[in-house]
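User: Sorry, what's this?
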Amino acid sequence: MALRFAIWGLLAWTAAAVPAAGELLPVPRPPAGSVEAVVAQELAAAHAAVDAAGRDELAGAYGELGRLCAAYELWDAAAAAFANAHQLAPEDFAWAYLLGYVEGQRSRPQAAVAALETATRLRPGDAAAWLRLGEAHLALGDARAARRAFERARRDAPAAAHFGLGRAAARLGDHAAAAEHFEQALRHQPAASQVRVPLAMAYRRTGRAEEARRQLAQRGERRVGFDDPLVAGLAAGARGGALYKFRGDQAVLDGRLHDAVADYRRAVAADPTSFFYRKSLALTLNRLGDARAAAAELEAAEPLLASLDPAQRDAEAVELHYALGALAVNRGDAAAARARFETAVALDPSYADAWLQLGNLEGRAGRLEAALAYFDRAVEADPDHAPARLQRATTLMDLGRFAAAIPDLERRLDLQPQDPQARQLLAIARQRAGRG
């Protein structure tokens, strides 16, 4: 059972993407005590360099501040700094490009498009800029514009360009073309397992079911890579645990999970009081199959919840209790799992997954009516929760209530039309209910 985590940044500011002509944006500083001392010192020095810079050096000073903020994933501060650098030096490719990259990290695709269009004008041969522009257009839902951008990167970054072109083609309904592009991406980067799922979907849409199943069996999270020296260089001036966290995050995206664990352990060693470092380490350990070590890190992280602001603390506490419950299920400790899931739903009664797991615990113990009550709560919390629909239906069938199971199975098939188990169960329920 996979751990579930939300990703939270250290800052919550929402600065405008680009300052008005003649105006510079304030670059927010992290609240006192929210970052390691070494990080706070580096940021203070970078802010001081901005304050001391003359007119000719100011763009570079803001740019270096932006690099440092981005290295530590202080995205709002980085966006403000890069926006200032871009305004002061509008013909400098680096500031336009990095502003576009950061806006993408902030889930602001329209702002990312504006900055990256400038970057591609300044350096038309830069494949990374075209790729990130294509991604921003996809995030905005403009598949045709995305396709035009990805085409510009085909020569220098063929794997990533074909991966983007495949997704654009799928959005436009051309699944045969999508499959061809995904196949090309894998020819250039066979280890890029993130391509397998969209390729399987394209195969399925074109009637190639057996090939789709083979692709799904090889699915993974190894991303399609491309040369991106500006982004790769962001961590060059960073130190401390945040640097190792950044490196660990990059290793996870590259599918190098053992390297990620090593970096996250270094981050924890640099700052043992960071909840997020331990959470990242636990998540990655669990993905490597080391559930015991993952649980130990989560238990060590639990007291650190108190260091978070209230909004983060409540959301992270729910996820942490759910994750520890899932790990307890995996090691066969039903009592510990129940306690964790009950705490999760007490903190967030709308948490359908936790209600579902409580129902599963009751079902395994043979207490079907109690299980049914929990599945009812899961569906009430999320009527489109496909696993809860299926579990409630099978429990009703075990209780002999075949007619009552039919609506859940029908809804399950609405949500997941390719589910053969639900289709078979629906046929049985209809037959036993006299509706066959």
User: Anything to note?
Assistant: Residues 96 and 119 are 5 Å apart (CA to CA). Residues 1-17 have pLDDT under 50 and may be disordered. The radius of gyration is 25 Å. The longest helix spans residues 310-330.
